Structure to design on (250 residues):
């Protein structure tokens, strides 16, 4: 287990090292759609410093609790994977709430959260669910599978363009479009898979996934768009409920 949480967020949620994705690093998997305003730290009433301190303590406590469970699930489900999660905070100002999973150059799984996301959750259950969800993306190999799908899409679309006699620029455009289509082909399925395993991680860490899934009621519903990256919020909540019913019966 390794944390990169500078001085426990300096208590003011402003002192952590941001995640820097260098050229050539795998791009993030998952991500949280922008939340609506009105989280605990984003309202104007009350003591801003006190709310920041509470949010910082909550993040540290959830990290301490969820990370070992995520690591254990990783070793159980994906025995050959690197399960040494690194949890980082992006402190760049003005960013919309976001969390995502990627890997560093050494192949270590990185779970990244920005300050706005940490501040926007209503309770520890929601934060634990988001953390479990992002960890699940790594455990299930979604980043690698997305890259493979993108590569296949690029080859297929560029090949079709070449067969029609397209010029070099058109072939390159077709390759880029094919990669984008390929990467999105199973993204909704990946999100639902991560919701399912994330529910298990959240529950085994001692948090309530059903309360955690209420986070979906606070973010815009993407609907069921063709080649959209996220499934409808209602479908995601249903996955959490069905998963809880299943593991509760065991």
């Amino acid at each position: 287990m390794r944390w990169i949480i500078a001085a426990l967020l300096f208590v003011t949620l402003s002192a952590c090292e941001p995640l820097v994705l260098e050229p050539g690093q795998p791009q993030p998997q998952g991500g949280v759609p922008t939340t609506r305003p009105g989280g605990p730290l984003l309202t104007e009433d009350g003591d801003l410093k006190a709310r920041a301190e509470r949010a910082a303590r909550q993040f540290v406590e959830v990290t301490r609790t969820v990370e070992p469970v995520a690591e254990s699930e990783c070793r159980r489900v994906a025995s050959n994977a690197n399960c040494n999660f690194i949890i980082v905070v992006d402190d760049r100002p003005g960013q919309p709430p976001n969390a995502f999973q990627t890997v560093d150059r050494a192949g270590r799984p990185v779970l990244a959260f920005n300050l706005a996301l940490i501040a926007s959750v209503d309770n520890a259950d929601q934060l634990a669910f988001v953390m479990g969800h992002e960890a699940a993306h790594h455990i299930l190999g979604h980043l690698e599978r997305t890259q493979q799908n993108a590569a296949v899409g690029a080859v297929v679309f560029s090949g079709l363009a070449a067969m029609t006699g397209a010029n070099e620029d058109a072939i390159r455009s077709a390759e880029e479009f094919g990669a984008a289509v390929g990467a999105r082909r199973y993204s909704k399925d990946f999100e639902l898979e991560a919701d399912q395993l994330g529910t298990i991680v959240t529950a085994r860490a001692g948090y309530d996934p059903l309360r955690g899934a209420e986070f979906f009621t606070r973010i815009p519903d993407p609907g069921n768009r063709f080649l959209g990256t996220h499934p409808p919020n209602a479908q995601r909540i249903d996955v959490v409920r069905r998963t809880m019913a299943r593991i509760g019966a065991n």
Notes: Residues 199 and 209 are 6 Å apart (CA to CA). Residues 1-25, 36-43 have pLDDT under 50 and may be disordered. The longest helix spans residues 48-77. The first strand starts at residue 2 and ends at 4.
